[in-house]
Write a structure and sequence with these properties.
The complex is a heterodimer of chains A (about 70) and B (about 190). Chain A has two helices and three strands. With about 70 residues, chain A is of the alpha+beta class. Chain A has one domain (about 15-70). In chain A, helix 1 runs antiparallel to helix 2. Chain A is flat, with a radius of gyration of 15 Å. With about 190 residues, chain B is mainly α. Chain B folds into two domains: about 1-60, no CATH class; about 65-185, no CATH class. Chain B has nine helices and three strands. Chain B has a three-stranded antiparallel beta sheet with strand order 1-2-3, with no helix packed on it. In chain B, strand 1 and strand 2 (about 10-15) form a beta hairpin. The chains are: A alpha+beta (about 70), B mainly alpha (about 190). The interface between A and B is medium-sized, with 18 and 26 residues.
Chain lengths: ~70, ~190
C-alpha cells in the first residue's frame, strides 16, 4: 500500500522522517486539543496551533542539528 | 475543599462559594455536580436555604458519592483497557472516537515501524519506565506480537520512532484516564 510518504510492505511501515513528524504531530495535537479544550471551536484552534508548533519546532531543531549530523 | 473560618463563614468547593449559615451558593458552578443530579432546582433551593442543615456535605448522601467514585473507577479502568471507552461510558461519543483513533493510530504506527515494546520485567529503571508507558495503551499492549511478528528493530531510525510512538500513545491514554476520572467525579464539566 502506498499513500504519500507512507509505504507498508510486509506489515512494516516505511515512512520518511518528515512523514513521521507530521503523523505524530497530527495525532498528539488531536489528543491534546480534546484534553484541554471543552468547545469544538476552541479545540480546532488549539489542534491547529499545536500541530503548527510541533512541525515548526521539529523542523527548526532539525536545522539546528544539521551541522552535527555527519 | 478548603473552609474559610474568617468572618463571612464561607466554604469553597472548587469554584463555588457557599455560605455555611444560609447554604446558598454564590458561585456559577457546583463541583460534585453528579451529587446534585438527582435534585431538581426547586429541591436544591429548598434544601439549600434550610437553616441549620449543616451545609453542602449534609445535603449530599454518602451513597451518591460512593456511586460516583465507583463509576469513576469503572470508567477509568475501561478507558485504560480500551482507549476511548471511558468517554463512551460517560456518553461522550466524539471524544471516545477521537481517542480511540488517535491512540490506536499511534500504537499501530509504532508497531508497523517495528518499535521496541518493553517487557514487564526488564531489570532496568528505563525499561520499567518504558513498560509503564507502553502498558498505558491497555489492550493494544497485548497486540504487539500480532503486529510485530518479526520483533522490534531499533537499529534503524524508524524503529526508534516507533518506540516513541508507542510510549506517547500510552502516556496520552493515561492522561485521558485522568480526564475521565475528573469528569466522572464532577470536578470537570
Amino acid at each position: 500500500m502506498y499513500c504519500g510518504a507512507l509505504i507498508v510492505v510486509n506489515r512494516a511501515l516505511r515512512i520518511s522522517h518528515f512523514g513521521a513528524l507530521l503523523l505524530f504531530a497530527l495525532l498528539v495535537s488531536l489528543v491534546l486539543a480534546c484534553l484541554t479544550q471543552r468547545t469544538s471551536s476552541g479545540g480546532v484552534k488549539y489542534a491547529l496551533w499545536s500541530f503548527a508548533l510541533f512541525v515548526l519546532i521539529g523542523v527548526g531543531v532539525a536545522w539546528l542539528m544539521y551541522p552535527v549530523s555527519r | 475543599m478548603t473552609v474559610n473560618e474568617v468572618p463571612g463563614k464561607e466554604a469553597t468547593f472548587g469554584e463555588a462559594r457557599v455560605n455555611q449559615e444560609s447554604g446558598s451558593q454564590t458561585g456559577h458552578r457546583r463541583d460534585f455536580g453528579i451529587l446534585a443530579g438527582s435534585e431538581t432546582p426547586a429541591e436544591q433551593t429548598a434544601a439549600g436555604h434550610a437553616p441549620g442543615d449543616g451545609g453542602i456535605a449534609a445535603r449530599h448522601s454518602f451513597g451518591s458519592v460512593a456511586g460516583r467514585s465507583a463509576l469513576a473507577l469503572f470508567a477509568a479502568i475501561a478507558g485504560w483497557l480500551v482507549p476511548g471507552l471511558g468517554y463512551l461510558l460517560l456518553g461522550r461519543w466524539g471524544r471516545a472516537l477521537v481517542f480511540f483513533a488517535a491512540v490506536g493510530g499511534l500504537v499501530v504506527t509504532g508497531y508497523l515501524l517495528r518499535g521496541n515494546v518493553f517487557p514487564p520485567h526488564s531489570g532496568d529503571p528505563f525499561g520499567t519506565l518504558g513498560f509503564l508507558a507502553d502498558a498505558g495503551t491497555g489492550v493494544f499492549y497485548y497486540f504487539s506480537r500480532m503486529f510485530e511478528a518479526a520483533g522490534p528493530d531499533v537499529s534503524r531510525a524508524a524503529g526508534d520512532y516507533g518506540t516513541r510512538f508507542i510510549a506517547a500513545a500510552g502516556v496520552v491514554n493515561m492522561l485521558a484516564v485522568l480526564d475521565v476520572v475528573e469528569i466522572a467525579t464532577g470536578r470537570r464539566s
